[in-house]
Amino acid sequence: MTSKIIRRLNKKVERRRFLRHSMCFPLSFRVAHGREGKITKEEISLTKDVSWGGLLFSAKHRVEKGTPIVIAMPVQDKIFKVKAKVARCVINPDAKLYDIGVYFQRFSEAFKVKLIEQMYLISEYRELRSVELGRMLSMQEASEEWIKRYSARFQRIYW
User: Which residue in 31, 107, 148, 153 has its CB near the most CB atoms, within 10 A?
Assistant: First the structure.
């Protein structure tokens, strides 16, 4: 193949506008409006990856492309709710689950998820530093350290 054809094929394969980062944190979701006004059952899952534009997670049930969903993400003692739309839903035959990719419709929804992601990173940092120091670091101390060490890098990578 010529390099021109290969470049064209590569462009078709990669449709993402935003860099994705592997992150695994809990979430639950439900269809925002069920058919004929029926309330849909909430399903629990974990994120597989997160980007500025959306996220990917697995689910037991298929959700049609374009379906609005509400995602709830617990962080410490709070639950953050985010609205998104299904961009794709494909079966993962190995896991016998559906991989659901969603996109955020508003900047504020994407911003919430980025803050949640940062809070999970700080929490992981806190656990690691507590082990290194031999004492439990408070969330405040961990946040201050993390921000001093990594906020500039986090900003370059994610924004």
Answer: 31
53-85 pLDDT, tens digit per residue, is 788 999 999 999 999 999 998 887 888 888 999
Domains of the chain from N-terminus onward: 19-158 (2.40.10.220)
Give which of 74, 93, 92, 90 is closest to 82, Cα–Cα: 74
Q: Tens of pLDDT along 108-124? A: 777 777 777 778 788 88
